Amino acid sequence: MLVIGLGAGLTVEDVPSSVDEIYVVELEPEVIHANRHLSPLRRKDPLADPRLRLHQGDARGSLARTHRRFDVIVSQPSHPWTTGASHLFTREFFSQARDRLQPDGVFVQWMGLRFLDQDLLRSLLATLHRVFPHIEVYQPRPGALLFLGSARPLNLDRDAPIALDRDLHPWSLVGVTRPEEVTVARVLATDGARGLAAHAPVSTDGRNQLRIRSPRVSSGRSLAKYGVDALFAPYDPLRTGLFAAERASRLRRLRRMVATGQAERALRLAAEFGDRLEHQIVLGLAHLTAGRPRAATESLRRALQLDNTAPEARSAWLRLHRSTIEQGRDLRATTGLSFSPTEAESWVTTGWLLAAAEDWAAVETLDGQLADIDPLHPLFPEATRLRARWRIDDDSHHREASILAGVTLVDSLLSPVPSAEDLLLRARAGLRLGEPRMALAAVDESTPRLRGPGQRTAARSILKSLATIVHDPTVAARALELGERLKQRTDRPAATDTLGDR
Predict the structure, then answer these.
(1) What is d(CA 402, CA 388) in angstroms, rounded to the nearest whole number?
(2) How far apart are CA 195 and CA 436, in angstroms?
């Protein structure tokens, strides 16, 4: 494997054991220095991997000087208009990379959506397609795309299960535990990529579209702002496989889309399938994820009126009314709608009630039942969160091993898209472990995701502790800065319900 651009080292941090050698080319020596300087603070130091060979230099020059052929080349330069990166998006570079691949090798291009508009995306596809006859595009999380190019047909439907069976652990660290979570991320197959790229200009060293136009796009009509679903919808490769699946499997995939920032796509596919129940469930999940409780209530109520046995609708309804359950109030009296809970639902709702009372010993007694909930169940993340909470939040003891076990559990919830609740839980673990930088990093990442006064108060409490009891002046200063910023924030007005009419 060859990785172009070390960056923060995340790409090479958890490369599966099936890769024997990892070569990394990084242009900027200060990036290498920063990675080495921060290595003691990391969960895992990628530069300490014995498979890794690090070279400081230019990617095109390095490829020109080697006769080695790679199974995978990953190119991930950011800011495509800059001098050190712009020449890595042209036909000439893609051809050079193809010549350094094995016959069945795969080229992977990372691209941030804020650097692209529709025309630049089509141009990038056209440029890749000029070199690689087979192209697929994936969106595993919001804000970026992965372009895969190969001389031979790609078949991740076949290969993803093999990779996961061989070594699941590194995939689970990035939120992938089942093959369907790979295929759901695929937004374009080869035919769709070819269709979207038709008649678009090819970028060359002499006329580099990204270098010329990307700086203006990043401050204007970027796809990060306007989204990609309208562009990809006519070519969506998921229609056939999704519609052929059973309802439970289909809803799991649609829920995954909502969780990974593809709510528009999930709603469109649910509407195309024509199942009113599924459409209402997905609509409710989209509203719930976006923080629109009233709209979520209306959609989920309609779904439960259609079928009050649907696990996805029931689980979303319970999550929506979690605060009512935590207060010990009767759900039927409060909402006018309830149902007899299943075992999994009973364990989770009982856990919520006990956790709200901070009866951690009682939550601990539920741990075995919570652990028995099927990972495919829509309440599995809630069960995992409860198992993490008693380990981290129980002040009656300070067992480091228990807190670390809680961190492992909460970390499993942070991919592919972390929630503020889980990040704040990780921050509390950092405080209890005496790891202020861990706590600060988690709060810092949570700030754009905080919803409501409760979460902001919790974040400010952690920051106050960091600012007053931590001896590291850098951590204290940053904590004060974030705390002041949160103090000035007010609740955002309710978002316009753009999904309500669909």
Answers:
(1) 9
(2) 51
| 223: phi then psi, degrees, rounded to nearest 5 | -70, -20
Provide the CATH number for the domain around residue 189. Answer: 3.40.50.150
Express each pLDDT in 397-408 by its tens digit. 778 999 999 999
Residue of 119, 92, 110 whose CA lies nearest to 212: 119
Does 35 share its domain with 110? yes
Question: Angle at CA 185, nearest 5°, toward 203 and 161?
Answer: 115
The range of the structural domain enclosing residue 128 comes to 2-235
pLDDT at 493: 45
pLDDT digits (tens, 9 = 90+) for 431-476: 999 999 999 999 999 999 998 888 999 999 999 999 888 788 888 9
Least confident span in 138-152, 215-229, 325-339, 361-375: 215-229
pLDDT in tens, 79-125: 888 888 999 999 999 999 999 999 999 999 999 999 999 999 999 99
Strands (DSSP E) along 22-62, which ranges? 22-26, 52-56
- Token pair belonging to 52: 């890794």
Q: Helices 247-259 and 263-273 sit at what angle, rounded to 10 degrees?
A: 150
Peptide bond connecting 170 to the previous residue in cis, omega within 30 degrees of 0: no
Q: Which helix (H) or strand (E) holds 388?
A: helix 380-393
Burial class (CB in 10 A: 0-12, 13-18, 19+), 479: buried
Q: State the DSSP code for 188.
A: E
Cα(369)–Cα(376) distance, integer angstroms: 15
The enclosing H or E element of 73 equals strand 70-75
The total number of structural domains in the chain stands at 3
Is residue 395 domain-resident? no
- Are residues 73 and 201 both part of a single domain? yes
The pLDDT score that the predictor gives to residue 490 is 54
Model confidence band, residue 499 (pLDDT cutoffs 50, 70, 90): very low
Burial of 446 (0-12, 13-18, 19+ CB in 10 A): buried
Does some domain include residue 385?
Answer: no
In degrees, to the nearest 5, what angle opens at C-alpha 34 toward C-alphas 29 and 39?
130
